[in-house]
Amino acid sequence: MAYTLAQYAKLETSPIHKYVLVNMIRDMKIQDVLPFHDVNSLKTSALQWRVLPGVSFRALGNDYTEDTTGDVQEVYETLCILGGLVKFDRVYDKLTGSTIKDPKQLIMDMKLKALALKWNDYFINGDTGTDPLGFQGLKKRISLMPTRQKISCGNSDSVGLDVTASAANVNKFWTKMEVGHRYCAGGSVTAMFCNEDMLLGFGRSLRYINSAGGQFLDFTKDSFERQVMTYKGAPIYDMGLKADQSTEIMTDTEAGGSAASDTCSVYICNFDEEQGIVGTQLGALEVVQDAKKDVATANQTLIEWVLGLAQYGSYGLTRLWNILAPDTWTA
Prior knowledge:
The chain has 2 domains: 5-49 and 69-138 and 277-311, Major capsid protein gp5 fold, CATH 3.30.2400; 141-274 and 315-328, capsid protein of prophage fold (2-Layer Sandwich). The chain contains 6 helices and 14 strands. The chain has helices at 5-11, 15-27, 103-125, 138-143, 167-183, 196-208, and strands spanning 36-38, 43-51, 71-78, 80-89, 150-152, 191-194, 217-221, 227-231, 234-238, 263-269, 277-281, 286-288, 298-311, 317-324. The strands form 3 sheets. The chain has a 7-stranded mixed beta sheet with strand order 5-14-10-6-9-8-7. Strands 1, 4, 11, 12 and 13 form a 5-stranded mixed beta sheet that branches.
Protein backbone atom coordinates (compact mmCIF):
# COMPACT_ATOMS: atom_id res chain seq x y z
CA MET A 1 0.00 0.00 0.00
CA ALA A 2 1.29 3.48 -0.90
CA TYR A 3 1.46 6.09 1.82
CA THR A 4 2.98 9.51 2.31
CA LEU A 5 5.68 10.17 4.87
CA ALA A 6 3.26 12.40 6.78
CA GLN A 7 0.76 9.53 7.03
CA TYR A 8 3.49 7.15 8.18
CA ALA A 9 4.61 9.61 10.85
CA LYS A 10 1.10 9.62 12.36
CA LEU A 11 1.22 5.83 12.74
CA GLU A 12 4.77 5.62 14.10
CA THR A 13 4.93 4.54 17.75
CA SER A 14 8.69 4.75 18.42
CA PRO A 15 9.42 8.17 19.97
CA ILE A 16 12.80 8.59 18.25
CA HIS A 17 11.44 7.51 14.84
CA LYS A 18 8.45 9.83 15.21
CA TYR A 19 10.71 12.72 16.21
CA VAL A 20 12.91 12.21 13.15
CA LEU A 21 9.98 11.89 10.75
CA VAL A 22 8.03 14.87 12.07
CA ASN A 23 11.05 17.19 12.06
CA MET A 24 12.06 16.21 8.53
CA ILE A 25 8.52 16.71 7.24
CA ARG A 26 8.50 20.27 8.58
CA ASP A 27 10.90 21.18 5.78
CA MET A 28 9.82 18.52 3.25
CA LYS A 29 6.32 19.90 2.66
CA ILE A 30 5.84 17.71 -0.40
CA GLN A 31 5.76 14.67 1.91
CA ASP A 32 2.15 15.59 2.69
CA VAL A 33 1.13 14.52 -0.83
CA LEU A 34 3.84 12.31 -2.42
CA PRO A 35 3.00 8.59 -2.02
CA PHE A 36 5.80 6.06 -1.48
CA HIS A 37 5.73 2.43 -2.57
CA ASP A 38 7.85 -0.27 -0.95
CA VAL A 39 10.06 -2.21 -3.37
CA ASN A 40 12.51 -5.07 -2.82
CA SER A 41 15.32 -4.12 -5.18
CA LEU A 42 17.76 -1.26 -5.71
CA LYS A 43 16.59 -1.09 -9.34
CA THR A 44 12.90 -0.98 -10.19
CA SER A 45 11.10 -0.97 -13.52
CA ALA A 46 8.05 0.98 -14.56
CA LEU A 47 5.86 0.38 -17.61
CA GLN A 48 4.93 3.45 -19.63
CA TRP A 49 2.17 3.38 -22.23
CA ARG A 50 3.67 3.79 -25.70
CA VAL A 51 0.80 2.90 -28.09
CA LEU A 52 -2.79 2.27 -27.03
CA PRO A 53 -4.57 -0.82 -28.46
CA GLY A 54 -7.19 -0.37 -31.17
CA VAL A 55 -10.92 -0.65 -30.58
CA SER A 56 -13.81 -0.72 -33.03
CA PHE A 57 -17.53 -1.04 -33.51
CA ARG A 58 -19.01 -4.40 -34.54
CA ALA A 59 -22.16 -5.54 -36.28
CA LEU A 60 -24.70 -7.66 -34.44
CA GLY A 61 -23.62 -11.31 -34.58
CA ASN A 62 -20.06 -10.51 -35.65
CA ASP A 63 -16.92 -10.74 -33.56
CA TYR A 64 -14.06 -8.33 -32.99
CA THR A 65 -10.77 -8.68 -34.83
CA GLU A 66 -7.92 -9.04 -32.37
CA ASP A 67 -5.75 -5.95 -32.21
CA THR A 68 -2.12 -6.33 -31.15
CA THR A 69 -0.85 -2.79 -31.73
CA GLY A 70 -1.02 -1.81 -28.06
CA ASP A 71 2.44 -1.52 -26.61
CA VAL A 72 4.32 -0.37 -23.53
CA GLN A 73 7.93 0.50 -22.88
CA GLU A 74 9.89 -0.43 -19.80
CA VAL A 75 11.90 2.22 -18.01
CA TYR A 76 14.26 1.60 -15.12
CA GLU A 77 14.58 3.65 -11.97
CA THR A 78 17.40 3.27 -9.47
CA LEU A 79 17.14 3.76 -5.73
CA CYS A 80 19.78 5.75 -3.85
CA ILE A 81 20.90 5.84 -0.22
CA LEU A 82 20.33 9.13 1.60
CA GLY A 83 21.32 9.61 5.19
CA GLY A 84 23.79 10.80 7.74
CA LEU A 85 25.52 9.92 10.98
CA VAL A 86 24.81 12.03 14.06
CA LYS A 87 27.64 11.91 16.59
CA PHE A 88 27.22 13.05 20.19
CA ASP A 89 30.28 13.36 22.40
CA ARG A 90 29.63 11.46 25.63
CA VAL A 91 30.37 14.66 27.58
CA TYR A 92 27.03 16.07 26.38
CA ASP A 93 25.26 13.55 28.63
CA LYS A 94 26.73 15.36 31.64
CA LEU A 95 25.43 18.80 30.61
CA THR A 96 22.13 19.51 32.33
CA GLY A 97 20.58 22.93 31.95
CA SER A 98 23.81 24.71 31.03
CA THR A 99 22.47 25.84 27.66
CA ILE A 100 19.13 27.13 26.42
CA LYS A 101 18.74 24.12 24.13
CA ASP A 102 20.02 20.62 24.68
CA PRO A 103 23.17 20.38 22.49
CA LYS A 104 22.28 16.81 21.49
CA GLN A 105 18.88 17.95 20.27
CA LEU A 106 20.48 20.89 18.47
CA ILE A 107 22.88 18.62 16.58
CA MET A 108 20.06 16.21 15.69
CA ASP A 109 17.76 19.01 14.50
CA MET A 110 20.50 20.47 12.28
CA LYS A 111 21.14 17.06 10.70
CA LEU A 112 17.42 16.46 10.07
CA LYS A 113 17.02 19.85 8.43
CA ALA A 114 20.07 19.20 6.23
CA LEU A 115 18.63 15.85 5.13
CA ALA A 116 15.26 17.43 4.35
CA LEU A 117 16.80 20.24 2.30
CA LYS A 118 19.03 17.80 0.43
CA TRP A 119 15.97 15.77 -0.55
CA ASN A 120 14.10 18.93 -1.63
CA ASP A 121 17.05 19.97 -3.80
CA TYR A 122 17.31 16.61 -5.54
CA PHE A 123 13.56 16.41 -6.07
CA ILE A 124 13.93 19.43 -8.39
CA ASN A 125 17.59 19.44 -9.46
CA GLY A 126 18.74 15.82 -9.11
CA ASP A 127 20.74 14.62 -12.13
CA THR A 128 22.49 11.24 -12.16
CA GLY A 129 24.77 12.58 -14.89
CA THR A 130 26.16 15.04 -12.33
CA ASP A 131 25.79 12.90 -9.21
CA PRO A 132 25.35 9.19 -9.97
CA LEU A 133 24.67 8.50 -6.28
CA GLY A 134 21.48 10.61 -6.32
CA PHE A 135 18.19 10.37 -8.21
CA GLN A 136 16.69 12.18 -11.19
CA GLY A 137 14.68 15.28 -10.28
CA LEU A 138 11.85 17.09 -12.06
CA LYS A 139 14.14 19.39 -14.06
CA LYS A 140 15.96 16.48 -15.69
CA ARG A 141 12.79 14.45 -16.19
CA ILE A 142 10.91 17.26 -17.94
CA SER A 143 13.82 17.74 -20.36
CA LEU A 144 13.21 14.19 -21.66
CA MET A 145 9.43 14.52 -22.01
CA PRO A 146 7.31 15.56 -25.04
CA THR A 147 7.61 19.20 -26.14
CA ARG A 148 4.00 20.01 -25.25
CA GLN A 149 4.84 19.49 -21.57
CA LYS A 150 7.23 22.49 -21.62
CA ILE A 151 5.21 25.70 -21.92
CA SER A 152 6.96 29.00 -22.49
CA CYS A 153 5.28 32.06 -21.00
CA GLY A 154 7.46 34.46 -23.02
CA ASN A 155 6.74 36.02 -26.37
CA SER A 156 7.90 33.67 -29.14
CA ASP A 157 10.10 31.90 -26.58
CA SER A 158 12.31 34.97 -26.36
CA VAL A 159 12.27 37.51 -23.52
CA GLY A 160 10.78 36.20 -20.27
CA LEU A 161 7.22 37.30 -19.49
CA ASP A 162 7.00 40.41 -17.32
CA VAL A 163 3.71 39.39 -15.75
CA THR A 164 2.64 42.75 -14.31
CA ALA A 165 3.78 44.90 -17.24
CA SER A 166 0.19 45.00 -18.51
CA ALA A 167 -3.23 43.45 -18.03
CA ALA A 168 -2.62 41.53 -21.24
CA ASN A 169 0.50 39.96 -19.73
CA VAL A 170 -1.37 38.95 -16.58
CA ASN A 171 -4.07 37.34 -18.70
CA LYS A 172 -1.41 35.55 -20.75
CA PHE A 173 0.24 34.22 -17.61
CA TRP A 174 -2.97 32.79 -16.19
CA THR A 175 -3.93 31.36 -19.57
CA LYS A 176 -0.58 29.54 -19.66
CA MET A 177 -1.27 28.33 -16.11
CA GLU A 178 -4.55 26.83 -17.28
CA VAL A 179 -2.81 25.15 -20.21
CA GLY A 180 -0.06 23.75 -17.98
CA HIS A 181 -2.63 22.45 -15.52
CA ARG A 182 -4.64 20.80 -18.30
CA TYR A 183 -1.59 19.26 -19.99
CA CYS A 184 -0.59 17.56 -16.72
CA ALA A 185 -2.43 14.22 -16.88
CA GLY A 186 -5.53 15.86 -18.31
CA GLY A 187 -5.87 18.20 -15.34
CA SER A 188 -5.31 15.53 -12.66
CA VAL A 189 -2.81 17.64 -10.71
CA THR A 190 -1.53 16.69 -7.25
CA ALA A 191 0.84 19.58 -6.50
CA MET A 192 2.77 22.52 -7.97
CA PHE A 193 6.29 23.75 -7.18
CA CYS A 194 8.00 27.15 -7.45
CA ASN A 195 10.28 29.48 -5.51
CA GLU A 196 9.30 32.05 -2.91
CA ASP A 197 9.24 35.02 -5.31
CA MET A 198 6.94 33.16 -7.67
CA LEU A 199 4.65 32.05 -4.86
CA LEU A 200 4.22 35.70 -3.86
CA GLY A 201 3.90 36.62 -7.53
CA PHE A 202 0.65 34.69 -7.96
CA GLY A 203 -1.25 36.99 -5.62
CA ARG A 204 0.65 40.03 -6.84
CA SER A 205 -0.45 39.45 -10.44
CA LEU A 206 -4.10 39.20 -9.42
CA ARG A 207 -3.93 42.36 -7.32
CA TYR A 208 -2.45 44.16 -10.33
CA ILE A 209 -5.66 43.68 -12.31
CA ASN A 210 -7.85 44.14 -9.21
CA SER A 211 -9.11 40.60 -9.61
CA ALA A 212 -10.83 38.60 -6.90
CA GLY A 213 -8.21 35.98 -6.12
CA GLY A 214 -10.81 33.44 -5.04
CA GLN A 215 -11.64 32.44 -8.59
CA PHE A 216 -8.00 31.44 -9.16
CA LEU A 217 -6.47 30.75 -5.77
CA ASP A 218 -7.61 29.22 -2.53
CA PHE A 219 -5.94 27.98 0.65
CA THR A 220 -5.71 24.78 2.61
CA LYS A 221 -3.63 23.62 5.58
CA ASP A 222 -0.81 21.11 5.77
CA SER A 223 -0.18 18.50 8.47
CA PHE A 224 1.27 21.23 10.73
CA GLU A 225 -1.78 23.48 10.28
CA ARG A 226 0.26 25.89 8.15
CA GLN A 227 -1.56 27.76 5.40
CA VAL A 228 -0.84 26.51 1.88
CA MET A 229 -1.94 28.29 -1.30
CA THR A 230 -3.80 26.16 -3.87
CA TYR A 231 -4.68 26.49 -7.56
CA LYS A 232 -7.67 24.45 -8.76
CA GLY A 233 -7.34 22.41 -5.57
CA ALA A 234 -3.62 21.58 -6.00
CA PRO A 235 -1.26 22.90 -3.28
CA ILE A 236 1.55 25.21 -4.43
CA TYR A 237 4.82 24.63 -2.58
CA ASP A 238 7.79 26.98 -2.27
CA MET A 239 10.78 24.61 -2.54
CA GLY A 240 12.84 26.87 -0.30
CA LEU A 241 16.60 27.00 0.20
CA LYS A 242 19.52 24.60 -0.09
CA ALA A 243 21.53 23.56 2.95
CA ASP A 244 23.70 26.69 2.73
CA GLN A 245 20.56 28.59 3.87
CA SER A 246 20.96 31.20 1.11
CA THR A 247 20.72 29.58 -2.36
CA GLU A 248 17.24 28.98 -3.75
CA ILE A 249 16.52 25.41 -4.89
CA MET A 250 14.47 26.91 -7.73
CA THR A 251 16.27 30.07 -8.81
CA ASP A 252 15.28 33.30 -10.55
CA THR A 253 18.33 32.98 -12.80
CA GLU A 254 17.29 30.23 -15.20
CA ALA A 255 18.13 30.60 -18.87
CA GLY A 256 14.99 31.80 -20.62
CA GLY A 257 14.31 32.18 -24.32
CA SER A 258 16.74 35.08 -24.62
CA ALA A 259 20.45 35.21 -23.82
CA ALA A 260 19.77 36.51 -20.31
CA SER A 261 19.54 34.24 -17.29
CA ASP A 262 16.73 36.06 -15.50
CA THR A 263 13.70 33.75 -15.48
CA CYS A 264 12.04 31.15 -13.28
CA SER A 265 9.69 28.18 -13.63
CA VAL A 266 6.63 26.51 -12.15
CA TYR A 267 6.38 22.70 -12.14
CA ILE A 268 2.93 21.12 -12.24
CA CYS A 269 2.91 17.46 -11.20
CA ASN A 270 0.67 14.43 -10.92
CA PHE A 271 1.48 11.71 -8.38
CA ASP A 272 0.04 8.35 -9.46
CA GLU A 273 1.01 5.09 -11.16
CA GLU A 274 -0.67 5.74 -14.50
CA GLN A 275 0.74 8.99 -15.84
CA GLY A 276 2.57 10.52 -12.91
CA ILE A 277 5.44 10.18 -10.47
CA VAL A 278 5.61 8.25 -7.19
CA GLY A 279 8.25 7.71 -4.56
CA THR A 280 9.89 4.32 -4.08
CA GLN A 281 11.71 3.04 -1.03
CA LEU A 282 13.48 -0.08 0.21
CA GLY A 283 11.46 0.00 3.40
CA ALA A 284 10.74 2.92 5.68
CA LEU A 285 13.25 5.54 6.78
CA GLU A 286 15.48 4.02 9.47
CA VAL A 287 16.90 5.44 12.68
CA VAL A 288 19.64 3.22 14.12
CA GLN A 289 20.75 4.26 17.59
CA ASP A 290 24.14 3.31 19.04
CA ALA A 291 25.64 2.85 15.60
CA LYS A 292 29.40 2.30 15.15
CA LYS A 293 30.22 1.23 18.68
CA ASP A 294 33.94 1.26 17.86
CA VAL A 295 34.12 4.95 18.85
CA ALA A 296 34.40 4.99 22.64
CA THR A 297 34.10 8.75 23.16
CA ALA A 298 30.89 9.27 21.23
CA ASN A 299 27.35 7.95 20.90
CA GLN A 300 26.26 7.80 17.28
CA THR A 301 22.86 7.60 15.61
CA LEU A 302 22.45 6.61 11.96
CA ILE A 303 19.61 8.03 9.89
CA GLU A 304 19.18 6.35 6.50
CA TRP A 305 16.57 6.17 3.76
CA VAL A 306 16.93 4.06 0.61
CA LEU A 307 14.65 5.78 -1.86
CA GLY A 308 14.04 7.04 -5.37
CA LEU A 309 11.37 8.26 -7.77
CA ALA A 310 9.52 6.27 -10.42
CA GLN A 311 7.87 7.94 -13.40
CA TYR A 312 4.91 6.44 -15.23
CA GLY A 313 3.76 7.84 -18.56
CA SER A 314 4.92 10.92 -20.42
CA TYR A 315 2.24 13.44 -19.47
CA GLY A 316 2.21 13.60 -15.68
CA LEU A 317 4.49 16.63 -15.43
CA THR A 318 4.47 20.06 -17.05
CA ARG A 319 6.80 23.01 -16.69
CA LEU A 320 5.88 26.67 -17.14
CA TRP A 321 9.15 28.38 -17.98
CA ASN A 322 10.47 31.71 -19.27
CA ILE A 323 8.74 33.74 -16.55
CA LEU A 324 10.72 36.89 -15.76
CA ALA A 325 12.06 36.91 -12.19
CA PRO A 326 9.14 38.30 -10.11
CA ASP A 327 11.36 40.78 -8.23
CA THR A 328 12.00 42.52 -11.59
CA TRP A 329 8.35 42.74 -12.73
CA THR A 330 7.29 46.23 -13.78
CA ALA A 331 4.65 46.80 -11.10
